[in-house]
Write a structure and sequence with these properties.
Length: 514
């Protein structure tokens, strides 16, 4: 018997076998480490970094995952039927009528909801013009939002809701944002839509438009947010304060005033206009509505702060001229007379960089900020004038109603001595040209009688009839002044050209001398 504690002597062969086995194990370990190293499996620094990152970023990872889940929930939609079913009961058709004297046949205008009599049919002394738009309830007691252009000049307004008709009364309207608030009297609580946050909309988000296009009530179309921040003047009305939402959800005549809702059933926009192209429609962001709603409800109109300047976005070439890193700021084309801006010392050609503590990246920043303030409040403007930054204190007044600017016909090309400069055909500014251009008798400058299509000025928007009055700090009173300035210019120079158009409005443009 061999006990566990017994020792067994090792033979030579046994020793060789043990040594060979140890060498094989050692070789296998070395080979495995080499292979593992090649696969980046044995780098302790990377492993430690990964551990530290996982621990330190655990909360961020959870937040990121939550955001991904939330995004997926918003965009993963099997059907819009439930959304439509929830929203439709609060959307109304707004029927309007106007009585006017006959003045000849008319047409169905893009912005005008009233339908005139067809061409060729006899007209009575008076006619009843009818039209329709859309709207939506924002409270259970019958307050309804629609477009101002839907109810503008209407003698009668009827709201159709779920087969019932109600007489409606205009309680507030705002031409600038094209929004209106109407009211119906009801004896029961009505369904209404909650207002969402249009600022959180992202390009590509799902959106639903509901309304009565071409009088087809309770029509639903679906699309996405195509773009945000579109600004333009709608045909038949002034430039709105709204930064329009652009969508490919179908918007047609009759949709005006209807809601755009997100997938949560919240109103994020008010359908307002369509383009003469497929899949391009525009809506006022609901954030704009929320900004004017209290005044519409309480006062029936909106009172806004007013500076009295004509501004535009700064361009890249102008940013180079003013030695700015980015084209940020609002360029002052014109300062209207007897306005807060003129009284505070704002001048044409200034670049407004800040208002109070807010940077002015684009004109929209300045317009929206000032318009949100009440008349009588003060704002501080940081202005870039040439290369000097100055601060101006402005006492705001109430913004007057917008009126259409009168146009002037373009004067005929002048005859007589002149000169050609950078593709411009220039003539002396005579008394006759001043009168025909609607300019003051004291106006001095050089008349542009023609602009070559290849000219750098054509690229910058110059047209015949413009009068050049200054280049940089030099006043241009006549052709001699212009020739003197032009003689010192070299290729690549950036110059600021001051000019006036027929009617007397001043503007500035920066060009690079070719």
């Amino acid at each position: 018997m061999l006990s566990l504690s017994s020792e067994v002597p090792l033979t030579m062969n046994t020793k060789k076998q043990i040594l060979l086995t140890a060498l094989m194990v050692f070789g296998a370990l070395v080979f495995g480490m080499i292979i593992a190293g090649g696969l980046n499996l044995t780098e302790p620094t990377r492993a430690e970094e990964a551990v530290r990152s996982a621990v330190a970023g655990e909360e961020d990872s959870r937040s990121a995952q939550a955001r991904r889940v939330e995004r997926h929930a918003r965009t993963s939609i099997e059907s819009f039927a439930d959304l439509a079913e929830a929203v439709l009961p609060a959307v109304v058709t707004v029927e309007v009528a106007r009585i006017e004297e006959s003045s000849g046949p008319g047409f169905f205008f893009r912005r005008n909801p009233f339908q005139r009599q067809p061409q060729g049919e006899p007209e009575p002394d008076e006619q009843r013009l009818q039209g329709a738009g859309s709207g939506f309830l924002i409270s259970a007691d019958g307050w309804i939002v629609t477009n101002n252009h839907v109810i503008d000049e209407a003698d009668d307004i009827t709201v159709r809701l779920d087969g019932r008709e109600y007489e409606a009364e205009v309680r507030g309207r705002d031409q600038e944002t094209d929004l209106a608030l109407i009211k119906i009297d009801v004896d029961e609580d009505l369904p209404f839509l909650p207002l969402g946050d249009s600022d959180k909309l992202r390009v590509g988000d799902w959106i639903m438009a509901i309304g009565s296009p071409l009088s087809f009530e309770a029509s639903v179309t679906v699309g996405v947010v195509s773009a945000k921040g579109r600004s333009f003047g709608i045909e038949g009305g002034p430039t709105s304060f709204a930064n329009y939402i652009q969508t490919d959800a179908a918007i047609n005549r009759g949709n005006s005033g209807g809601p755009l809702v997100n997938t949560a059933g919240e109103v994020v926009g008010i359908a307002t206009a369509m383009a003469w192209a497929e899949n391009i429609g525009f809506a006022v962001p609901v954030d704009v509505l929320e900004g004017v709603l209290p005044q519409l409800r309480d006062e029936g109109r909106v009172r806004r702060g007013y500076l009295g300047v004509q501004i535009r976005d700064l361009e890249h070439i102008e940013a180079r001229y003013y030695e700015l890193d980015e084209p940020h700021g609002a360029f002052v084309d014109e300062v209207r007379r007897e306005t807060p801006a003129e009284k505070a010392g704002v001048e044409s050609g200034d670049v407004i960089l800040r208002v109070d503590d807010h940077d002015v990246v684009a004109t929209r920043d300045l317009i929206d900020y000032v318009a949100a303030l009440a008349p009588g409040e003060r704002v501080e403007l940081e202005v870039l004038r040439d290369t000097e930054r100055i601060t101006l204190d402005v006492l705001l007044e109430e913004r007057p109603p917008q009126v259409a600017e009168s146009g002037s016909s373009r004067p005929a090309p002048a005859r007589g001595e002149g000169m050609d400069w950078l593709g411009l055909e220039l003539r002396p500014l005579t008394a006759n040209l001043r009168e025909r251009s609607g300019l003051d008798r004291s106006q001095r400058g050089v008349f542009v009688s023609d602009v070559s299509a290849r000219s750098i000025f054509a690229e910058r928007g110059f047209q015949p009839g413009v009068v050049i009055t200054g280049i940089d700090d030099a006043e241009i009173r006549d052709l001699d002044d212009l020739q003197a300035v032009a003689a010192d210019l070299e290729t690549g120079d950036l110059i600021r050209v001051e000019a006036v158009i027929p009617g007397g409005r001043r503007f500035f443009s920066v060009i690079e001398v070719p």
